[in-house]
């Protein structure tokens, strides 16, 4: 039987998009405590089922698929521009297809108005009415409000009518920045993107060691999650746990309790680092303590291969830092990336900042270790020694050399220098991420 928490999530998922949700209403309808209802609503927000906005409340929204993540809902637009909803609240769950700035003549605006658009305009009432009648939401800039006629149209067509205090340029820039951030997030892989939905192989805590070996013989899986009668994860068994176990002994006696787990929303980068750090081959994937899948090292390797083939649509801060640094061919086994200290990489005093410096050190070490073994790495420890500041516009070399490496670890020395000076040195220890 599903828990009360899961019952609330199922109930929220069954509601149509646009429905208003409150803690008191959930508690009353499902006969649960307000604390349980609150925790479930927060979980639903994490799962992308609802969105909570100041002065509006919590609204059921459509769960976004990976290919639609770059789209914003009008409710999110309200939060981004710190706006006020003047009308059309029932349409806040709808997605923004694109935004249009109403800076052209009125007779030319019609060709740009389509359902799903957002018209960003000042106090031009005729343009506001035209937009709503064409199926486009309206965002009024400059702190202006709307007439009673425009508000009535917004409510009639269920199209959000929003007002904000920013000017048109700033408003468009805020929305564009949010869309750009979504493009970056679209390229990030999460556990739920790589874990295949399949029938889980599990054991009950009251089963025997003999049952474990029968399961291994039948399925080939040697690392098996252990669950209770309600499907909650209580442990995990591995060949190491069973090495000296008696055949009629109970699984609960030998299993590893409180195993390392991930959630569907954990990033692959975080999961792979945890795997390398803990030296484990498989991690259960849980949602509200209920196991929904398992993540293996093979899944992680496959995810990294997929990431390397993806076209990067949006640039991260790391991309911006390293994009102007080129790899230099060497013959002594070291790796060199060469580039110029740009103004964006400096402190207010005009010297290379610690954040960009660390990024460059990581990148040089990654290039170097890729030459030794064509594998990814997870940085475990980094010690940096700042010798002197690297001024803006200085052309620098970031030189990485392997000091020692083994089956699981590698140690790399990195030197940041130009032709005459050494600006910093670093010692980096990393885990290999391998099958």
UniProtKB/TrEMBL annotation:
<dbReference type="InterPro" id="IPR036388">
    <property type="entry name" value="WH-like_DNA-bd_sf"/>
</dbReference>
<keyword id="KW-0129">CBS domain</keyword>
<dbReference type="Pfam" id="PF03061">
    <property type="entry name" value="4HBT"/>
</dbReference>
<dbReference type="Pfam" id="PF00571">
    <property type="entry name" value="CBS"/>
</dbReference>
<dbReference type="InterPro" id="IPR006683">
    <property type="entry name" value="Thioestr_dom"/>
</dbReference>
<dbReference type="Pfam" id="PF07085">
    <property type="entry name" value="DRTGG"/>
</dbReference>
<dbReference type="InterPro" id="IPR000644">
    <property type="entry name" value="CBS_dom"/>
</dbReference>
<dbReference type="InterPro" id="IPR051257">
    <property type="entry name" value="Diverse_CBS-Domain"/>
</dbReference>
<dbReference type="InterPro" id="IPR029069">
    <property type="entry name" value="HotDog_dom_sf"/>
</dbReference>
<dbReference type="InterPro" id="IPR036390">
    <property type="entry name" value="WH_DNA-bd_sf"/>
</dbReference>
<feature type="domain" description="CBS">
    <location>
        <begin position="255"/>
        <end position="312"/>
    </location>
</feature>
<dbReference type="InterPro" id="IPR046342">
    <property type="entry name" value="CBS_dom_sf"/>
</dbReference>
<feature type="domain" description="CBS">
    <location>
        <begin position="195"/>
        <end position="253"/>
    </location>
</feature>
<protein>
    <submittedName>
        <fullName>DRTGG domain-containing protein</fullName>
    </submittedName>
</protein>
<dbReference type="InterPro" id="IPR010766">
    <property type="entry name" value="DRTGG"/>
</dbReference>
<dbReference type="InterPro" id="IPR028979">
    <property type="entry name" value="Ser_kin/Pase_Hpr-like_N_sf"/>
</dbReference>
